[in-house]
Design brief:
By secondary structure, the chain is an all-alpha fold. The protein has a single domain, classed as MFS general substrate transporter like domains (Growth Hormone, Chain: A, Up-down Bundle), CATH 1.20.1250. Helices cover about 75% and strands about 0% of the residues. The chain has 16 helices and two strands. Helix 12 packs across helix 14. The longest helix is centred in the first third of the chain and has 35 residues.
């Protein structure tokens, strides 16, 4: 029986309607996800005043959703390797949208924290599955670009959260920000209809007719796949599918550990800045509206950095691009605490967003290419789950720093240190953990 190489068909496809649809749907999901995650930093100054929270209490409250994200990334990442990317994404989307809406009814920190935990559970499960799906269905030459374009929606969600906060909170209070989080549920039928399933999953489950139909949609101009041909997804080796042990075998040990360190440090910086930037700037004498505008600049920078990084990653060594971004993040964050003219301050914050939020997105793209199809969601899920411990530490660290009443410069320098650690981890990976590949393509386990 003839064999048809599905991955080759995907890799060589021209960018067309099928890819536009998946990019649009996944980008929308990232916008909703980003809105939900950055909403805490938007409402934090108001909630602290209304409930009389100390910085340490507020930092702990911000960690509830991040605990949820850690478990969501781990559990839904592995589950999707069993039930399919599409179902995993839809379940995650519904969970975080409903939980965010219910968060608006919270009357105390216990109710608030519980709702944030379940919202984080859904958000954490959505990210690795969306990255894995678009990575598996994107043409090879555009893989980094499409993943980072999709993930730029995460930063746009933060832009919407800050923008709505500036307009709505003075009139309706902080609760309205969470009620607005239910609006994306209206698009659920659209998402269910247009979001495709992973081809590899369809083939493994014996759903060959659906797979053949999708192959035609990916390359409409190609000849119809021979009905007698066996559809195969060629990988270097497929063992213990979905097992965490696979992440440390066949030359992946150093890469897995390096990515885990980079995830931890990068997400610490993302959520330390996302949670505390408005409050820090508010304490430094800026009005609440101006403080939220800094959050806007941070997320605009994140979207721009993701797109630029993806474009560079498709043309140069992705690992080295990530290292350069981390180094730039250390410099820009460290300088944010010094007294600078307003244009310079906005430039520094935008650069920090581009090289912190943007780098997080680049790491997702890199991890998706590092692992093979059989354990890609597992690899993304574990990397994301380990990274979520850093996300949990970020808001708590910010709370302790504010409680210590340290100078503004010291706060930002403390936020920048993890970037230096992450850069070192990626340097070790590029020099030692990836000796044979000029780019991330062709790494051990790559499909």
């Amino acid at each position: 029986m003839n064999k048809f190489d599905v991955q080759k068909h995907i890799d060589e496809a021209k960018f067309g309607k099928f890819h536009w649809l998946i990019l649009i749907v996944c980008s929308m999901l990232m916008i909703f996800d980003g809105y939900d995650l950055f909403i805490f930093g938007v409402v934090l100054p108001v909630v602290m005043n209304e409930w009389g929270l100390t910085p340490v209490q507020a930092g702990a409250l911000g960690s509830y959703s991040l605990f949820g994200m850690m478990f969501g990334a781990l559990l839904l990442g592995m589950l999707a390797d069993k039930i399919g990317r599409k179902r995993g994404i839809i379940v995650a989307f519904v969970v975080f949208s409903v939980a965010t809406f219910l968060n608006g009814f919270a009357t105390n920190t216990t109710e608030f924290g519980l709702a944030r935990f379940f919202a984080g559970l859904g958000c954490g499960g959505l990210m690795p599955n969306a990255v894995a799906l678009i990575n598996e269905l994107a043409p090879r030459r555009m893989r980094n670009t499409l993943v980072t374009l999709m993930f730029s929606g995460f930063s746009l969600g933060g832009v919407f959260a800050a923008g709505l906060g500036i307009y709505l909170m003075p009139k309706f209070g902080w609760n309205i920000m969470f009620f607005a989080g239910a609006a994306p549920l209206l698009l659920l039928p659209f998402i269910i209809y247009y979001l495709p399933e992973s081809l590899g999953f369809l083939i493994r489950k014996g759903r060959h007719e659906e797979a053949r139909k999708m192959l035609k949609e990916i390359q409409p101009d190609s000849q119809t796949v021979d009905p007698s041909a066996e559809l195969v997804v060629i990988e270097r080796k497929t063992v213990a599918k979905g097992s965490v042990l696979d992440l440390f075998t066949e030359g992946r040990l150093i890469g897995t550990l390096a990515f885990w360190v980079a995830f931890f440090c990068c997400l610490l910086m993302v959520y330390a800045l996302g949670s505390w930037l408005p409050k820090l700037m508010n304490n430094a004498g800026y009005s609440l509206g101006s403080s939220l505008s800094f959050l806007l600049a941070l997320n605009f920078g994140g979207a721009a950095g993701a797109i630029l990084g993806g474009w560079l990653g498709d043309r140069y060594n992705l690992g080295k691009i990530i290292i350069v971004f981390f180094i730039a993040s250390v410099a820009s964050i460290s300088l944010m605490g010094f007294n600078s003219p307003m244009p310079v301050l906005y430039a520094l914050i935008t650069t920090a967003g581009a090289t912190v939020i943007g780098t997080q997105i680049l790491i997702y793209a890199a991890v998706a290419q590092f692992y093979g199809l059989a354990y890609r969601s597992t690899g993304l899920g574990w990397a994301s789950a380990v990274g979520r411990t850093g996300a949990i530490v970020g808001p708590i660290l910010g709370g302790f720093l504010l409680a210590m009443q340290m100078p503004l410069q010291a706060n930002f320098i403390a936020f920048a240190i993890p970037g230096a650690v992450a850069a070192l981890a990626m340097i070790i990976f590029v020099m030692v953990g990836n000796p044979r590949a000029e780019n991330f393509y062709g790494l051990p386990g790559e499909a």
